[in-house]
Amino acid sequence: MLKYFRENIFLTLILFGISCFIKANTEFYKLPSEKKLKILVVVGRFPTSSSNILLPIAGLHQRGCDVSIYAIKGSRSLSEGFKKALDEYNILELLDKTSYNTSEDWQNELVNLPSDLESFDVIYCAFAWFGKIFARLKKEKIIKKPLLLTCFRGADICKGITSDPHCFDTIFRYGDYLLPVCDAFKNKLLRCGADEKDIYTFYTSIDCNKFSYKKHVVKPGDPIKIISICRLISKKGLEYAIRSVAPILKKRPEVTYIIGGTGKLEDKLVSLAAELGVGNRIKFIGKLSQKQVVEELHNAHIFLHPSVETQSGDGDAAPRAIKEAMACGLPVVVTDHNGINEIVDNAVHGMLVPERNVTALEKALMHIIDNPKLIKNMGRKGRRRIKKNHHMDVVYDNFVSFLHRIVASH
Fold first, then answer.
1. Predicted TM-score (pTM) of this structure
2. What is the pLDDT of residue 220?
3. Which of 214, 313, 337, 385 could bridge across to 307 with cysteines, CB 3.0–4.6 Å?
4. Per-residue confidence (pLDDT) for residue 9, from 0 to 100
5. 408: enclosing H helix or E strand
6. Which helix or strand (DSSP H or E) is residue 178 part of?
7. Helix (H, G, I), strand (E, B), or coil: what is residue 125?
8. Cα–Cα distance between 350 and 347 in angstroms, integer?
9. Residue ranges of domains in the chain, CATH in brackets
């Protein structure tokens, strides 16, 4: 009995010592995150309803960062739509912490910068065009202390380096970190002379709680709805989408095609559908609220998004619309364009085809239509991929940890 008592006392002391060690080291490693990061987010106009702007602001704000905003292109009136968008992300209060540039020549002159600019830990520029301007301020030593982080997310990098491979040299030299939104853009930056140690791939995210999963069960012969939701502009490749869907609609009466969104190509796309003899089978449903997007995705079966590189070099990264569709449980038929293959594995989450290849798009769509079990199986795997890697909580937990590390070592 005495031996048993001694052994248990000894084991208890060991366990107590281990728990104290873990607690002490946990507290030690938490020390850097106890400092509230002060971050200036540089955007175009504010307020806005753009997820590209609101998600980073909300992600930082929700994780205890002291966020202020500088609207480099000035202010917008607070419409009901903007107010609702800010309210949904719980950042309406940040309107009181927003400064507005009042110069019309924003590319060459910034006024009304925050008076406490040097007190910020980080200046986060939402687009590379803004990063160029703030890199110039660092070059001129108007900004000294804050770390300058520049996001590269689409037209800024694609069109920028097409017209001038050296257009971001000022950022490379005087900025601190580059944030491409996919590894394809990271590789573009490396080819232009960026230093890999200064690059952090900052994937765009979605809120998987808002884009909820629905299991899509389809039997042979059931109605099948193909859907595209995007801006109706060249780089979205909707001309190729319509041309690939047209022959399917003519031979498969159970299939319909819905296009959501607005843009300068709308009239041209409506005319194309009519010319191909399917004007009455393709429905253009216009601009959608986030709630309506989710409803449409839940009622659809295949998401079609054939991005292309335009003549000007413009292109997509890894479009948020694809991630939203995958989160809602849809298989996706997409092109192997920039960062899309970083989120979609061919024949796993959907089908990847070459750009501008109408025949390949049609075959990919028909493969899923003729094998309806794929709709549920690919959709389930897609949801799992997005929730694991691109859910807002995952992306911004990692990003804020990264910010703490670089600020602590600065």
1. 0.89
2. 86
3. 337
4. 54
5. helix 392-408
6. strand 177-180
7. strand
8. 5
9. 36-205+391-408 (3.40.50.2000), 224-389 (3.40.50.2000)
Instruction: Enumerate long-range contacts of 56-59, CB under 8 Å, 24 or more apart.
Output: 56/124, 56/126, 56/151, 57/89, 57/91, 57/94, 58/89, 58/90, 58/91, 58/392, 59/205, 59/392, 59/395, 59/396, 59/399, 59/400
Nearest C-alpha neighbor of 128 from the set 161, 106, 156:
156
Is 16's pLDDT higher than 70?
A: no
pLDDT value for 35: 82
Q: What pLDDT score does 48 carry?
A: 94
Is residue 348 classed as helix, strand or coil in its secondary structure? coil
Q: What percent of the chain has pLDDT over 90?
A: 87
Taking each helix axis from N to C end, the angle separating 155-163 and 183-191, rounded to the nearest 10 degrees, works out to 20
Instruction: Give pLDDT tens digits for 184-221.
Output: 999 999 999 999 999 999 999 999 999 999 999 998 88
- Give the sheet arrangement for strand 282-286, strand by strand: 282-286, 255-260, 224-229, 302-305, 332-335, 350-353
- CA 222/CA 255 separation, integer angstroms: 9
For tokens 């949904």, what's the residue?
88
Q: Are 317 and 153 in contact (CB under 8 A)?
A: yes
Inter-residue contact 324 to 293 (CB < 8 Å):
yes
Decide the pairing of beta strands 282-286 and 350-353: unpaired
Confidence of residue 30 (pLDDT cuts 50, 70, 90): very low
Per-residue pLDDT at 34: 57
Residue 319 DSSP class: -
Length of the chain: 410
- Give the type of residue at 15: L
Decide the pairing of beta strands 255-260 and 302-305.
Answer: unpaired
**Amino acid residing at 119:** S
